[in-house]
TrEMBL record:
Stored Pfam families: DEAD
UniProt key word rRNA processing: no
GO MF terms, alphabetically ordered: ATP binding; ATP hydrolysis activity; DNA binding; helicase activity
Name listed for the protein in its UniProt record: ATP dependent helicase, Lhr family
The keyword Cell membrane belongs to this UniProt entry's keyword annotation: no
Stored Gene3D superfamilies: P-loop containing nucleotide triphosphate hydrolases
Organism: Methanoculleus marisnigri
Length: 69
């Protein structure tokens, strides 16, 4: 099992946007101003690669949106 050390921000917002479908990318730019939270920047690339991911972070930090992206 791979572990992501706490406190690392993961990928850049631009890298995350590049992984997304065009319609989802446009939504993220409009609704989120193209910015992602640290938990999202760590999780989305792994989810995109088909990895199983467990996100432990405070309420409102973007865990659910990470799963949908």
């Amino acid at each position: 099992m791979e572990k992501q050390p706490a406190g690392q921000d993961g990928h850049s917002d631009e890298e995350i946007l590049g992984l997304l479908d065009e319609n989802v990318r446009e939504w993220c730019i409009r609704q989120l101003e193209g910015r992602f939270t640290p938990p999202q920047r760590m999780a989305v690339p792994l989810i995109h690669d088909g990895k199983n991911v467990l996100i432990c972070s405070p309420t409102g930090s973007g865990k659910t949106l990470s799963a949908f992206l």
